[in-house]
Amino acid sequence: MSLLLSEETSIFDQLSTFGHQQVVYCSDPDTGLKAIIAVHDTTLGPAFGGTRMWLYKNEAEALRDVLRLSRSMTYKASITGLNLGGGKAVIIGDSRVEKSEASMRRFGKFIKNMNGSFITAEDVGTSSKDMEYIRMETKHVTGVPKSLGGSGDPSPVTAKGVFMGIKAAVKEMFGNDSLAGRTVAVQGTGNVGENLVGLLRKENVKVYISDIDEDRLANVAKKHGAEAVSNNRIYDLEVDIYSPCALGATINSETIEKLKCGIIAGSANNQLADEAIHGKLLLDKGIIYTPDYLINAGGLINSYSEIAGFNRERTMQLAENIYDATRTVIKKSKIENIPTHLAANRIAEKRIADMKRIKATY
Ligand code: NAD
Fold it and tell me: Which fold has domain 11-70+85-148?
């Protein structure tokens, strides 16, 4: 889902190329706010997406980012079966020094003016405190503190989704989805990684872990009975599953050459360094890659639950649906001999087209 647009491409051309519905420029010289909100598609529901604050090189770069990210949100919500559309907002600036209560509340007013067609959440460079400021001006925001009706830490939900994605891939590869005795290498033992390690260990999985934070690594190893390995060994391990839960782009020509696993399933965003090249390489090598944007959708599910007023149990049930969605994607990939990320994209597009045809209500 790459957006290859040059800086000279006109804004309207950029919008029409990937079907964006609306872009709102928000400017408030008094507070210094400069933001762009992109609504990609609202067929399934209101456009939902985080607000990223970043010191972009220029406005063209900010626009490209918000268009790319909002479109990804459409696919993510669709493949996960949620009644949400895709959107995103970017605030141009250094989040460490250029953020204030006034600028965030002013931004909240811009969201309010969109009358519910866009709902936001925290992202890189924004925090739950910022969401609280936005909440003072509009109800179209999630990720506020629990005391204000927020859904809390999304990481356990994300880990559950990744766990279900792993089970679905194991079922495809081994004929049953029991994880007992399987081996998994989890890269990154942060919020999601640690929760995932906990779930895997409960199923008697042999878990190897790596992290650049050595204290964290040692703590997680001790707490869950996992085996800590150095970062440069993680790709060489003889394991059934490699689970990237740290950074993007760890699946590239060099690592694919090394990997001995049959399955890749983790929470990191944008795991394939180049979708076109590495998706195909994995297919040819017979490695099942569970698309990152599907199995890490727990965070989105968590936000959706906040909007819909679901409790934790219902939220976890929604995360469990990732099992069936992953199985459907893997099957389509096999039948059509296409990489799994493409299979997922096509399923997401079909759901949107179907709902458009019947003019689904939300
Ligand atoms: P986190 O910051 O809590 O944890 C990331 C961990 O990775 C840290 O412990 C860090 O030290 C480690 N790390 C960084 N670079 C590393 C490297 N080169 N090798 C090994 N370890 C490294 O983040 P998180 O919330 O656990 O999220 C993990 C990934 O999942 C991120 O890519 C995030 O974008 C993605 N994700 C998270 C959620 C969520 O609900 N938290 C939802 C969707 C996607």
Answer: Rossmann fold (3.40.50)
Catalytic residue numbers?
88
The DSSP call for residue 113 is H
Q: Backbone phi, then psi, for 129, in 5-degree steps?
A: -65, -40
Contact 132, 144 (CB under 8 A): yes
The residue ranges of every structural domain in the chain are 11-70+85-148, 155-349
Among candidates 264, 228, 223, which has minimal Cα distance to 245? 264
> Is any atom of ligand 1 closer than 6 Å to the C-beta of 152?
no
CA distances from 186 to 165, 200, 270, 320 (A): 14, 10, 16, 20
Which of 79, 123, 158 is the best mutation target for the ligand 1 pocket, counting ligand atoms within 8 Å of the beta carbon and taking the most? 158
Q: How far is the CA of 177 from the centre of ligand 1 (A)?
A: 26
The CA distances from residue 362 to 11, 172, 209, 353, 355, in Å, are 29, 34, 43, 15, 11
Which overall architecture, per CATH, does domain 155-349 show?
3-Layer(aba) Sandwich (3.40)
Rounded CA separation 72/293 (Å): 8
Residue carrying the six token digits 């942060």: 190
pLDDT tens string, the chain, 362 residues long: the values are 555 556 667 888 888 888 999 999 999 999 999 999 999 999 999 999 999 999 999 999 999 999 999 999 999 999 999 999 999 999 999 999 999 999 999 999 999 999 999 999 999 999 999 999 999 999 999 998 888 888 888 999 999 999 999 999 999 999 999 999 999 999 999 999 999 999 999 999 999 999 999 999 999 999 999 999 999 899 999 999 999 999 999 999 999 999 999 999 999 999 999 999 999 999 999 999 999 999 999 999 999 999 999 999 999 999 999 999 999 999 999 999 999 999 999 999 999 999 999 999 88
What size, in residues, is the chain?
A: 362
Pocket flag, ligand 1, residue 187 (CB < 6 Å): yes
Q: How far is the CA of 275 from the centre of ligand 1 (A)?
A: 20
